[in-house]
Amino acid sequence: MTLALRDVGKEYGRLRVLDGIDLTVAPGEFVCIVGASGSGKSTLLSLIAGLAPATRGTVTLDGEPVTGPGPERGLVFQSGALFPFLTVAENVAFGLRLLPLPRADRAARVEWYLREVGLLPLAGALPKELSGGQRQRVAIARALACEPSVLLLDEPFGALDVQTKEDMQLFLRQVWLDTGTTVLMVTHDVEEAVLLAQRVIVLGCDPGRVAAEVPVTLPAERPLEIKRTAGFHALRSTVEDLVRANMSTR
């Protein structure tokens, strides 16, 4: 499905958070959104997820207006937001209850995604028994189990330590390569955006708007060592300069 935003704006009373957002995300694309605090990154994601209505403009999937949450859009927050009283497998299966799938098919899908995220041996564990990175893997598996057309990620690795974060970045990119799911990710980490995305969208501030789009011209295979290359440093510097140039002056 093609995700399209046309002249999207969002206001809360007299506060204009987003203004004139035009953005298209093609099927199977990995796009990261970056910007300084106050640029409306998370607000934009909430409009796409259907958690809040746009004040003006349109948000569509394959031409159909987004009017609320739906199974074609999976959403993962920074906290993971797992159900503490459900096992790993039960958390992953939770959304599948709403789909017309036979029980055996639901079980097979849960098993496949737990194997994909490397947590099948922990299927019976509770969230409190997992590390932060493992909990985020479960949250991503839960979102993917419903096989959404678009996976929306809001700062999913922001609370993790550096090593776990890098592991999760490599994991997420591999999942994207394996599944072909469209990914739209909000992050404050420019290095993360350049490592993961095919294209980086830079939002300006006051109100939030698309200030620039930067194609990431790096190989499809991106081990962590790629961050030491001149090409990576140049792209990161370009995006950092654009973020800095479009920060609020208030």
From TrEMBL:
One of its GO terms (molecular function) is ATP binding. InterPro entries: AAA+_ATPase, ABC_transporter-like_ATP-bd, ABC_transporter-like_CS, ABC_transporter_ATP-bind, P-loop_NTPase. CDD domains: ABC_NrtD_SsuB_transporters. It comes from the Bacteria. Transmembrane segments: none annotated. Signal peptide: none annotated. Residues 3-230 form the ABC transporter domain. Keywords: ATP-binding, Nucleotide-binding, Transport. PANTHER family: ALIPHATIC SULFONATES IMPORT ATP-BINDING PROTEIN SSUB, TAURINE IMPORT ATP-BINDING PROTEIN-RELATED. This is NitT/TauT family transport system ATP-binding protein. It comes from Thermocatellispora tengchongensis. The lineage of its organism: Bacteria, Bacillati, Actinomycetota, Actinomycetes, Streptosporangiales.
